Amino acid sequence: MDLMNEIAKVKYSGYFKQVGSLELESTSRSMGDLLSISNLLKTYLGLSDYESRVYTTILLRGGLTAGKIAVYSGVPRVKVYSCLRRLMDAGLVYEEPGRPARYRTFDGAPMFKFIADRLEGEARLLKKLSDMVRRVEEKGNYSDVWVFDDPRDFVSKVEELMFKVKQNLSIAAGPDGLALLYRRLSRSLDFVARKGVEVEVYGRAGGWAATALRELSYVYKVQEAMVPESIFALAMDYEMCALGFVKVKAGCFRVGPLILLRGKAVVKALWRVLTGISF
Predict the structure, then answer these.
(1) Which of 151, 133, 129, 211 is nearest to 178 (CA)?
(2) Which residues sit opposite 21 in a β-bridge?
(3) Three-state DSSP class for residue 238
(4) Based on C-alpha coordinates, what's the Rg of the chain?
(5) Of all residues in the chain, what percent are helix, strand and coil, respectively (each to 5)?
(6) Which tens digit of pLDDT belongs to each residue from 176-186?
(7) CB under 8 Å to 145, separation ≥6 — which residues?
(8) Cβ contact 49:38 at 8 Å
(9) Which CATH number fits the domain 2-111, given the four candidates 1.10.1060.10, 1.10.357.10, 1.10.8.80, 1.10.10.10?
(10) Cβ(34)–Cβ(56) below 8 Å
């Protein structure tokens, strides 16, 4: 699973080494490392794509001028200065006076320790979710499992389930699931709401997902929750829940199975596991 791979990278790869406390390895400076760390920052610190790339470039290469940052990060120079201002306001970067000025990062160990702890927490949450689904399966409380080769079929099935809701539709989604909801399902969501259905969205803000949550909050009840990255779940009238998996890779959606679970007790327990919030 991708999440477990990310945990392995954080704990065992060239990003970090354990020497009393978590410290950053400075030996690997490839574009692949830049993008990998950048994605973690977007997901767990809510940085934009440009901001995370600027920060990661300074982190891996040391003190740099704005011009060098633009060259190494691939961020347009006109955007680098605004990114630096936001990073300095956030206490992640500081300016070293000179002509030209150079920019450096503060000690990154506490921040990456925080991210590593979050990843470990997600792994425990997914293990708990896996155990729960297994128990539900043993008791026969699931009715259907759909497997999709095409994300469009996944979207169509989700729409079909949404259109059957009568009173309440609750959606829990990680960052990738929020992208699917905002880009592919917003019209269907509007249609359901116009029928008088109460719509609630639970999601984790981070990177692009923060924009999706903000836009959705203008129309629906939105609450931040630590939903695992690839999760996409629908709770329908508190009686059924569809649990699915969505991943964005290279700008394309990839989807896993969609499992339909029944029973108010099952839905309530699942929602508490996914969001930490009870109905």
Answers:
(1) 211
(2) 19
(3) coil
(4) 21
(5) 50, 25, 25
(6) 889 899 989 99
(7) 257, 258, 259, 260
(8) yes
(9) 1.10.10.10
(10) yes
User: Which of 262, 242, 240 has its CA nearest to residue 185?
Assistant: 242
Stated length of the chain = 279
pTM, two decimals, is 0.58
Model confidence pLDDT, tens digit, residues 137-196: 565 555 678 888 899 999 999 999 999 999 999 999 988 889 899 989 999 999 999 999
In this structure, the number of other CB atoms found within 10 A of the CB of residue 225 comes to 18
Quick check: 88 and 95 in contact, CB under 8 A?
A: yes
What are the structural domain ranges in the chain? 2-111, 128-275
DSSP reduced 3-state for 172: strand
Cβ atoms within 10 Å, residue 100: 10
Give residue 111's identity as a one-letter amino acid code.
M
Cβ(158)–Cβ(185) below 8 Å: yes
Topology of the domain covering 128-275: Endonuclease; Chain A (3.30.870)
Q: Cβ distance 59 to 105 under 8 Å?
A: yes
